[in-house]
Design brief:
binds nickel (II) ion, P-loop_NTPase, nucleotide-binding, ATP hydrolysis activity, transport, membrane
Length: about 375
């Protein structure tokens, strides 16, 4: 059996704050393989971004307390700073929701992409030269090559007229084009793993669909493994092969998208699905998920979802919930599963948002 590209096992990341310790990631385990897109789905505050940052070892001021992050044979939790630097920006690239986290407003976009190409090439050349004991010298043609490669990358990301856009500045790009440029930078190093944290959240639906399509072609054409962080069930359903449903920093349910999102077994996944269906009904008032995520202060020696779940029993609040495997791919952490199949509404109706209780359901 070949090992997975990324294997996160029992990961704990916490923040020590004035209010106490925030257990942002609380024992999460999942994998991402080459050529697959794995979604991390959950409401705001469920620990998605901290999980993503922890994998890149950018968790500060958080601290990884326990767990392993095996990436292509290296445990990133114990790797040296220089190994991490080497892996980040070469083998692992990250894309954030906000392109301004990546793009510098005072340099032309094309130059920034070319720079990413050059850094990557200098890195691989430097490794060879280090090995041979020869110092790196700059050759003139390197820049021209990097520019050519930048044009190519922009073209691959469907940025129209890349040649003429090379010298344009970020503010001259639309939001969608900026995010494409960020993807081009992320791909300049030919990464094995791409971590994308809500990459399309700020974009309109058409642009969003285009970018998600780009991610799928990266998976298919370059065999890249992709971890796609999203709070949007539709995005995950459209794009991912497998999904990890996160709540309170714990994996509630994980498995193939077509199983988990069509026949969810965990009350939390069912609730997400139900809210998503409701929110997309035309004319109906958009309603947020009932209840609010519990305060992640204090580690969960219980199910983090128990207070919002109408199936919860005393046992759910008293002990750590073990993970059960429905089959080799599909697993969940719920003491009450299997739930009745026709029980569409898994969450407590009385836990609705303040004005939600006054809703008239008779229409
Ligand atoms: N620097 C920090 N200091 C203290 N707590 C933090 C810090 N960063 C994140 N947290 C906490 O960790 C928990 C998980 O946050 P995270 O950003 O991972 O959520 P998320 O699932 O990405 O949410 P969103 O969808 O809003 O981006 C939250 O309770 C958050 O308040
Ligand atoms: Ni986030």
């Amino acid at each position: 059996m070949t090992d997975k590209l990324l294997r996160v096992e029992e990961l704990y990341t916490r923040f020590d704050t004035d209010r106490g310790t925030v257990h942002a990631v609380d024992g999460a385990s999942f994998t991402v393989d080459r050529g697959e897109i794995v979604g991390v789905l959950g409401e705001s505050g469920s620990g998605k971004s901290v999980t993503a940052r922890s994998i890149c070892r950018l968790e500060e001021p958080g601290k990884i307390g326990n767990g392993t992050i095996m990436f292509d044979g290296t445990d990133l939790t114990t790797a040296s700073k220089s190994t991490l630097r080497q892996i980040r920006g070469n083998e692992i690239s990250m894309v954030f929701q906000d392109p301004t986290e990546t793009l510098n407003p005072v340099f032309p976009v094309g130059e920034q992409i070319a720079e990413a190409v050059r850094i990557h090439e200098a890195n691989s050349r430097q490794r060879l030269l280090d090995f041979l004991g020869v110092p790196l010298f700059r050759d003139q043609s390197a820049w021209a090559d990097a520019r050519d490669r930048a044009v190519e990358l922009m073209d691959q990301m469907d940025i129209p007229n890349p040649e003429s856009r090379l010298s344009a500045f970020p503010h001259e790009f639309s939001g969608g084009l900026r995010q494409r440029a960020v993807l081009a930078i992320a791909l300049a190093s030919d990464p094995k793993l791409l971590i994308a944290d809500e990459p399309t959240t700020a974009l309109d639906t058409t642009t969003q669909a285009d970018i998600l399509q780009r991610l799928r072609s990266l998976r298919d054409e370059r065999d890249v493994g992709i971890l796609l962080i999203s709070h949007d069930l539709g995005v995950v359903a459209q794009t991912c092969d497998r999904v990890v449903v996160l709540y309170g920093g714990q994996v509630m349910e994980a498995g193939p998208v077509n199983e988990v999102l069509t026949a969810p077994e965990h009350p939390y996944t069912r609730m997400l699905l139900e809210c998503s269906v409701r929110n997309s009904t035309p004319g109906e008032r958009v309603q947020s998920v009932s209840g609010t995520p519990s305060d992640p202060i204090g580690s969960y020696e219980a199910c983090p979802f128990a207070d919002r779940c109408r199936h919860a029993t005393t046992a759910c609040r008293e002990r750590y919930i073990p993970t059960t495997e429905l089959d080799s791919e599909h697993r969940l952490a719920c003491l009450e599963a299997p739930l009745p199949a026709d029980d569409a509404s898994a969450h407590r109706q009385d836990a609705l948002t303040p004005d939600g209780g006054k809703q008239d359901d008779s229409t």
